[in-house]
Design brief:
The complex is a heterodimer. By secondary structure, chain A is mainly alpha-helical. Chain A has 19 helices and 2 strands. Chain A has helices at 3-27, 30-51, 57-79, 103-110, 120-127, 133-140, 144-160, 173-190, 198-213, 218-232, 234-237, 256-270, 277-294, 299-312, 316-330, 332-346, 351-363, 367-379, 384-395, and strands at 238-239, 242-243. Chain A has a two-stranded antiparallel ribbon with strand order 1-2. In chain A, helix 10 (218-232) runs parallel beside helix 13 (277-294) and helix 12 packs across helix 13. Chain A is elongated. The termini of chain A are far apart. Chain B is of the alpha+beta class. Chain B folds into 2 domains: 17-45; 51-109, no CATH class. The longest helix of chain B is centred in the first third of the chain and has 20 residues, at 19-38. Chain B is globular. The chains are: A mainly alpha, B alpha+beta. Chains A and B meet through helix 7 of A and strand 2 and helix 2 of B.
Amino acid sequence: MSQTARAAERAARDSYGRLLAFLAARTGDIALAEDALAEAFAAALTHWPTRGVPDTPDAWLLRVARNSMTDRQRHIARFHSPEEPPEMAAPDNTEADALPDDRLALLLVCAHPAIARDLHTPLMLQTVLGLDAATIADVFMVSAPALAKRLVRAKSKVRDARIPFVIPGPDALPERAEAVMEAVYAAHTVDWLAPLDMMGGEALYLAELLARLLPDLPEARGLAALIAYGHARRAARVVDDVLVPTDQQDVALWDADLWRYGDQHLTAALAHAAPGRFQIEAAIQQVHMARAATGATDWTALNKLYFALLQVAPSAGALVAQAVVTGKVHGSAAGLAALDAAAGSIGAEVQAMWAARADLLAEAGEVAQARAAYDQAISLTQDVPLVRFLQARRAALNG
Amino acid sequence: MRYTFLLYSDPADFADMTAEDWEAEKQLYGAYIAALNEAGAFLDTDWLQPVSTATTLTTKGGTRQVQDGPFAETKERLGGYFAVDVPDLDAALAWAEKCPAARHGRVEIRPSAMGEG
């Protein structure tokens, strides 16, 4: 790859979200901004290799995109709609560094309550990271044409219902930011067991961005830490296509840089003394990571943290995890009792509950019941590494 | 006596309309509004964007819940309407939240298709 082509690609990766947010925030029209930016990048690929990379690539891209937008708006104004074209600041020689960062406003629009919840993450991946609908559909295992259509409609709604690109006041911001964090978290979990954990990297990018944009929101930093810890273990999570539980992973495969990065964010978050769901979840992961230093998992610490998590953000997953930890601390009978106590609120279709029950029954020597529970757990998942792991456990039952 | 007309139609009936058809349709409505005005009967009207731009809000149960899409009619029935002029959807949502109807029912918010002014 030539120097100029590399520069173009680097500019693309670094600038895409920033430029798109800037253009979309000023027109309220994400699709228009996307089309204009695509045209600008195409122009860059044509012009830069022959004429050289401009001193300020972002400013160059912005100028071309703005011109294209103005043309499109004129076109739209002439043929389709009697309405005035959206207002655009006059094109100038804005330096890339001076470009305001509107990505927080864009993230908030993507996770606006007036946009269907299951589109929050795909919209973010498409607009901030520039992923195409087909890639996103692949990761979320949905139909690509259907997702593409829904994304187009969502962007039209943003424009037509005039969802504003603004940072809400301090009374509304935490709730709106919560939706952004939920969507980033969803990106983090979506291909958890895929070998590349591509979305883990993308989620980390978004979480890092959000933590930078909202440095005083401890939960944003907690989320960045949580995702960093998870992503740090990506190489250890699945070995030979079989899932490896966190407490049995080879710590040599964990990414020490990401571990440190997670620690930095979590320490900074906890300094605010305003704990929340993501900080507690990050603290749980930090305890798991600490095994790399101490050689043992501190189940008592995990027990306390899961107790705290259940107070703040009760969920089926947390209830199951709490029962597993109870089993580690107080024995399988206590763990099974905890699962029984929580069974009503967990629901019979939760795969993790059956896997946990099977493990606890196996430990208690209830081989027949354990086998049935493993069968149930296997029947409730399509994830190959998880299925193989459960089959191995089932096969290891004695008797 | 004030009466409110709620205008229902099947979007499929408009799918093939050309720009000229729309213009003609608008002129029909313009003439109708003029006639109402002349008779001193006109109060307020609006033409709404498609249902895909709808947002529904309720504060039933004490917390504000917002969802994408129109209100799917169940037990609740349309009982009235407000037309407001605000800068954006967030402002519209804030007013919808204050609407007494949101406390025990739902408020569907649809942007106007009439443009500015």
